[in-house]
Amino acid sequence: MSMTFLAIQIGHFHPLLVHLPIGIILLAFALEIYNRLRQKPSGDEMILFALGIAGITALVSLGTGWLLGEEGGFDEDLLFLHRWMAVAFTVTTILLFFLKRTKSKPIQKLYIPTFVLVLILVSVTGHYGGNMTHGEDYLFRNTSSAEVIIKDVAEAKVQKDIIHPILEAKCISCHNQGKIKGGLLMSSETGLLKGGDSGSLFDTVLEKPLLLHRMHLPMEDEEHMPPKGKVQLTSEELALVEWWVANGYCFDCKTKDLKTSERLEVILTSLEEDDSPHALIAKEVEAVPAAWLQEMKATGITIYPISDKNPLLIATLFGEQKQMKTKLKALEDYAENIVELNLGNSKFNDTIADLIAPFKHLTKLQLQNTAITNKALAVIKKFEFLESLNLYGTVVDNTVFTFVKNIASLKSLYLYQTKVTNEEIEKFQIDFPDIAIQHVPKDAFLAASLSPPTIVAKTAFFKDSLKIALENTFEDSKIFYTLDGTQPDSTSIIYKAPFHISASTTIQAVVMKEGWETSEVSTQKFKTTSFDYVEVALNKPPNEKYKAQEGKTLVDLKRGSKNFVDGAWLGYEGSHFSTTLTLKENQEISSISVGALSAPTNWIFFPVGLTIYTSENGKQFKRIKSMKLPKEEPNNDVSLAFFDMKIPPTKAKYVKVEVKSQLKNPSWHSTPGGSSWVFVDEIILN
Amino acid sequence: MSEKKIIEDRSLILNRRTFLGKSALGIGGVALSSLLGVNCFRKDENGILTSDSGAGGIKGVLNSLHHPAKVKRVIYLFQSGGPSQLELFDYKPTLNKRRGEDLPESIRNGQRLTGMTSGQDSFPLVGSQFGFKQHGKSGAWVSDLLPHTAKMVDDICIVKSMYTEAINHDPAVTFFQTGSQQPGRPSIGSWLSYGLGSENENLPSFTVLLSRGSGRPNGQPLYTRLWGNGFLHSLHQGVQFRAAKDPVLYLNDPDGTSKRTKRAMLDQLAALNDQHYQKSGDPEIQSRIAQYEMAYRMQTSVPEVMNIEKEPDYIYKMYGADAKIPGTFAANCLLARRLAEQNVRFIQLYHMGWDQHDNLPNAIEKQAKDVDQASAALIADLKQRGMLEDTLVVWGGEFGRTNYSQGLLTDTNYGRDHHPRCFTMWMAGGGIKPGIVYGETDEFGYNIVQNPVHVHDFQATMLHQLGIDHEKLVYKYQGRRFRLTDVEGHLVKDILV
Asked: Which residues in chain A are closer than 8 Å to B385, comparing Cβ atoms?
């Protein structure tokens, strides 16, 4: 057992060693001829040495070959011929060595005929050896005719057109007439049905037919097929073989006769001949040398192959007219390889338009935003593969259609921002509905309304007067506003420059512009206040996180923002809010405003009630008025609001304000009953 | 592993001799050539920079695409928070008929819940408060909330059968952007920058634009790591463009610095950095050098691309008046088109505020208004410029929302919790079948009944359109080859032309 194993291992060196005697004997023959032509007898020693080495290596090759032959799996007839020819070759080579060495003149006459015999033997032996490893038809096989071209996969013969080519590529090099490994012949129907030494290919072994079983074994397994180190079946090929076997390994059925799955449909379709323009062009053009590509890149051209090992190229050129000229000329060598050419936004123009004529295989040409006119289009007629032509932003006009209508392959045409009229486009589309002229649907973006203006002021509260500016992002638009709380329209005041207000005012403003819908109304309230405070005390400390400047916050005349963590808000969780304001002197109070925040997603709600108390000495407070506020409707906006309460005019130095929180999240909230917050930023007395 | 060890290991990966050999002119040469408009960086297979004389921006590791690409760039309109598919695209009249009934257990089928509804006693079904109509030649159902999107329905491919594994925002967004629920992997845009490089040397190949929705203005925050480079070179991380005076922070020179001073400073700094790099071999130093150079070029390119003042009036009519207000979704869509025109490879928008657990009807109405017109306008605008041919536009969030109400169901109000089992996205552009609706959910809008599309499938398909085989774009890190789709992902061939 171990002997056989060793023998086989040594035998495996045969394919390597076999080339040595062949090479050396040919070298010896070459030296012999050289010697004789130059008449230099001194070279004889070298020839003798070469023949000696040839003899030894021939012997070693013969030995290893013998062992390999014992391993089996070869066509016995071929093996017999190869083996005994090799014996003859080895013997004659050794004989030749001695003929060269002999001093006997008559025997020397046999030298040349023997050499010729050796050469014949080495050729024949080598040929048989080659037939054994590569198959008998290897030498004269027409590789292109062996390739199966499938035009319509549904009509393809499953075994002949689909399965056989897979076996041919991955199996038959070992399982052919010349080299029937494992007794299995896969090149013919009978061979496949007969099976090999391990039995029929289609008998089930461990739940799978033997053929698939072997293919599915782990790579490490000795019995895995194709053997480790050989080219393996791809997952698609494996799926196809499985499909064929599962459908009863028929030999004359067509694809449409068999059941397929979604995945198989995809694989099967991929077998169809690619007759896309790119595939057709790729067949016609030659490969591009990498050095040329590198050179093009160095001249500032963005150029790359459309994919790995594909001769087709995509190029983008950019620059001034002179540069464009140089670059286009540089590309001429392989212009036919270029299928996409982007000259968009460059200084390409009519005067150099002829330079794109050599690019006859273009499928996509981009000329957008260039200075070309109709004149440049003449050259385009010649592009028989052109599918997409971009002329957007050029000055081409209706004559464009006379140029493009003869390009049968054209699919997309871009004429946005050109002089081509919509009527002509529509006319053209009737005759050529297959060419898509890309444009935005007319009705897609009709009603565009302006954004409302922004009302800009330093503060929402002021003592004497306040400067107001109105801003808007659109040029050529007009802002109309009112100061009396009425809805602004085109008869309202036109905004020209910032203005001042000196009393509490509600400003409403809109933007108008021709061709646009009027914006929504922007509204903002501004309040005056004339009170000075000595102290503002919080009767209950706010939450540690939202204490802002404590009491001062309420009278700093600065509004908080929609961002409740901005440090301008006093926040109370699950409790009401109460503050006592101490005025500088006794003053008459007739109204109160409380600024609050609502952000239901953050559990912050507007207050539900206000109560005001006054006192002249800071000890005995008198309740002046109480007011309930409506509960919020379901929403998750963030909004700011003022809650105003008019009170009977009352003189006081001390004012206590209580703001009622709803304490708990309302039933419509995502967490009903959770303890809610009330946020207050400002209290204005008047 | 100590930091030093990591650096040592990485310096072994990096063939320093090659780097120094190729950039024989030194880093000054690199700077000079970049000024001349010729790119000098090239990455070897580990994403390390080496010099290259080719044109364009930073080169990707892929020498050529795995197969011909359909698109050259992606605009990803990420709808952060989980838009409710039931109010927007997935029309389920059954839910309206059975409003208030409890979700049958046979439908829920053991689906885990978030902490926000797991305590609920019942799961009352609720249908959309908004009408649905069929639109376009395809007859796709689209909500009345999206009147503009509805008009473009023949240009988009609506996928109703998306599903994910994550149920909370951060893991779900991270999953979509990086292919893993745990942070630390590179974002899609970073993978593309690493694989394909940039076609514009003056702008980063991965840009990010954020906007806040009016549906829930203080809703879920986003973390910058969502556009992070993970274990890839930090060169590949997304660059956020802000809606402010400085679109990119710290890009402008301090007062009193002239261009020349700046250039001299950068050259000097690069020389110093290079010295240190030779000592430590830390590839991050090269990243830094490259980033300084990029920032230098961006000083002119960014203000140019961000200046939308000169866009004509009819463009604003398309995108809506909001597009005039920096930082809105509409303005960002317009910017996205401008960046796409500059060949920026991956333009990522995030629009926050879709997380409508309560008061959904009210909030989604505003939220939909934020995005509807601008999304549709972007498609139309790209189309008329011929750019939709080679641009992929993606619209969608990280998961969907439940078919039952979170919190109390009233006559006019309800909320919806997170739902990973099905949600809707749409795609448009090169190589995607226009005007189709793919996948189907059951009549309850809870489970997928046909053609499920997993997050990894979506990612695989997106890469495929860019000419990349998702199984082949890998990066070896900590002994393992990582890819965007991890060990999963199947191409969704049915939606491809």
From this structure: 368, 390, 392, 414, 416
